[in-house]
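#structure-requests
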Amino acid sequence: MIATLALLCGCSNSAAHQQVYGAGTARIGESLAVLGWNTSISNLRWQDDYVLVDVDAAPTDAAKPHADPHDIRFGLYGALAHPMEAVGIGSCDGVKNLVIQSLSAPGGNRLTGTVCLGPMKDRAAVRGVYLYSPRDRIADTVAAYPAAFPVGVLPTKESDTGMVVKTTSIAAWRTDGTPLNQSSLGDPAAFNGSGYMLLGLEADTVAAKYRDDSASRGGPMMLLVSPTLPPPGLNPACMAYGSSVLILPEASLDAVHVNASLCTQGDLNDALLYATVAIVGTHAAVWTLK
């Protein structure tokens, strides 16, 4: 588990001392310290329907723990209808017609290159880019709930985490593409082997409350589903949606309302019948256009 690390750097620009739901904030082109890395994100631009940004990062202190480069996820910040995230390393692999240096971690002590996020057609909704690590957890902020197929997670109590999370859709398949449904529960052989499940999740709370809670906690919340497998996983959908999402909507909105799709995958019994949804506090940073 990644050690809890300070987010904010001693930058002279006042924008770097602001926060969005507990996440350290800077302008595109500036640097922030987050997850043990001094990180600069610059040159936000569009190619076709993808957002591209250049990343340059080095450990804040080589002698202290810092997030594994392969765990760091990037996402689009703004008034998006649906979160758009990707692990930074490998995010440009499926994007065609690019002449760039994709994000890499030479020697494990530097992050450098370009991150690709998309596809995304609504350019007006994008206000910046954020990052976090699903492995970074703020102490004493974890709440976990069973999410067994075909019901998923029932609406959570707001008193548990400050927000209500519930399942809005659920679908499951075997690795060979055979869909599973409620009638499959009566077949003793249906859950042999491996497969995956896509959970549609909705997270809601009052923006002012989430802002205060996040500032007190030291960061926003994220949703995690398990079990999962490392990329590329069992299906492109699991690669696209991932198993985590940061709850970081545009700060000017009056309410926090996030709809996300996340994937559990692996042994069918584990991935469908013993799936879990966790709500966890984490450290994050966001770079904005303004």
